[in-house]
Every structure is written in C-alpha cells, then in structure tokens.
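Hi V.,

You were right to ask for the full record rather than a summary. Here it is.
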Amino acid sequence: MGTTNHVPWGGLIAGYVFFVVSSTGLSLVSSLGHVFKFKRFEVIGKRAVLGSIITLLMGFVVIGLELGNPFAMINILFTSNLKSAIFWMGLLYGVYLVLLCIEFFYMIKDDHKKSSFFGLLVLISAIAAHSNLGAVFGFLTARPYWTGPYMSIYFILSAFLSGVAILAIVYFVVMKVKDNETLYYRGDHILSSLGKLLVLFIGITMFFTTWKILTGLYGAVPGKYEANMVTLTGPLAMQFWFLEVGLGMVIPLVILSLPNGFTPTRVFIAGSMVIVGIFFMRIDLVFAGQMIPLEVVKGMEVEAYRAWSIAWAEWALIFGAIGGSILLYLIGEKRLNLCTVINDDVHTTQKRELAKPIYK
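Predicted structure:
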C-alpha cells in the first residue's frame, strides 16, 4: 500500500484525515445556523449535516481498509488502552457519528428544539473528536514536526475551511439544478455568505501556516527544521507551493477579493480550488513528518530523506471514497427533503426574480 517500515503512515492516513476533517468542518459550519441561531446560515443545516455523516462514514471506510483487516477494529472494545490517543479517537468519533445521525433525524422531522439540542451535543463531540485527532499527531514526541499543542487548534480551524469549501460546491450545484427560493436570506444568496466565510478561513489558515513554518525554522530544532525544509525546498516543495499554498489559498483569495468577488460562479471556483489544496495539505502533513530519518542508533549513517509514495491502489480507494460520498449525497438529495424555510419576521423566502441579481 505504498508504506514502508520507515514511512508507516501512507496515503490512506492522509485520505482518512481529509474525510474526517471535512466531516467536522461541515458540522461546525452547520452549527452557525441551528445552534448559534445565525439565520443567514440556517438554510445549510440539513445538507451540511448529511454531508458530515457521509464524509465521516467514508473516512471510516478508508481507515478500515488501511488496517488491512477492517474487522480488527472490534478489538478496540476488548483491548482498550485509555492512555492511547488513537483509542479516544475511535471512541469520540463513534459518539460523534451517533449524535450526528440523531441530529439529522430530528432535522428531517423539522423538530427544531430537539435538533438544536443534539446540534449542540454534536458541536461539543466534533470539537472533542477533532482536537483529539490533532493530538494523535501532536503527542508523537519522536516526530518533532508534529509535536505540540498547535496541531489540535490547526485541525479545528482548517476544518472550518474544508466545510465551507464543500458547501460552496454543493450549493452552486443546487442553485443550478433546483432554482430553490430558500437559498436566499433577505435578498442575499447563501453562496455570497459562504464566499465571505471562505475569505475569513483562508486568511486564518494562511496565518497559522505562516507561523507554523516560522516556528519550525527558528532555532533549527533537529527534526522540525529538516521537516519544514522538506515542504519548502525539498521533495514536497512543488505540491506545497503550487497546490497547497497557490491553488488552495492564494488564488482563491485573489478571486474572491476582486470586485463583485462573491458571485456564485467565483465562490464555486474558489471553493473547488480550496478543497483540492486542502487534500494536498493533508498529504504534506502526513508525509513531511515521516521523511526525516529517526536517529535510532547515535552516529549511524542514514539517508537524507525517507522515500515515500502513494500506491495506485491507495489513489483508487481515495477516489472511490470521494465517488461514494457524491453518490450517497445525491441519493439523499433525491430521497429527502433537504430544504429549510427560515421563519423570520423580517425575512420572507423569495423567488429568484425578487432577490438580488445572481451574477455569473
């Protein structure tokens, strides 16, 4: 599967992180509406939670296949290690999935009181599970590139970016297919609001990425400095600068900063670029931390960088999971009522011709 004794975490680990981070991001963004009561974002609730369930399930599929024997996961119930961050990752994500399903059930039944209550529980469990995922990396003192409290915060903030980018893509397609009047709030299209959130979280991600690099370079700490150089000038430099930074942050920010930058088409293009950039962000994170050889025997001569690769089978599984996510979402869109009507004294759901013009 493209892994070695020196690089034991491969492409499927990066794929798993991508899917579960996306799931958390969708939950966090959905909470803006039905938990924190920002009515502008209430229209995204059902679709965001459905997407969160689907991407989390696909993450479980990917990590299960990475184990080789998915049924081995049952052993966590009988050989639990309470000191292991990976044990807590499995437990917390399991609780998170159950709460997500309950929340979605009440949302479909339009039981706003219960869905808001479970939405709050989902928010708490999502933050707990996702910050723990960051701790899986942050607790690894043998890998200085990952070590530290920064990882948990970074994972949560970048999750917001993932969630907003996915919703930008989803709602552009919904706009083209359904011509749904509930995509507006007080005359503003939901894609305009998502575009503003994209700018905010791109800026936050760029800020954290910059300081992650600077702290990694300052003082030339062994292991951390070399791993940062892997992404800046080493084997991962091309995809870091062109895909993670250029395609995933700089170009989308420029597109959305242009005059009339929050038009649906521009928000869709920016969101698509961001989600591709985030995918390679996860790849860079997983492999950069492993490419610096560990000095197991002091003075032993080792190669400069450990070789890494993503096997074709891993690519096939990751793209299969992406395809599965799209298929399951389309089934949900067809079978379920995912529209949300905002009840507000000032707001009235408006037809497209009564709302602000949608610029192409």
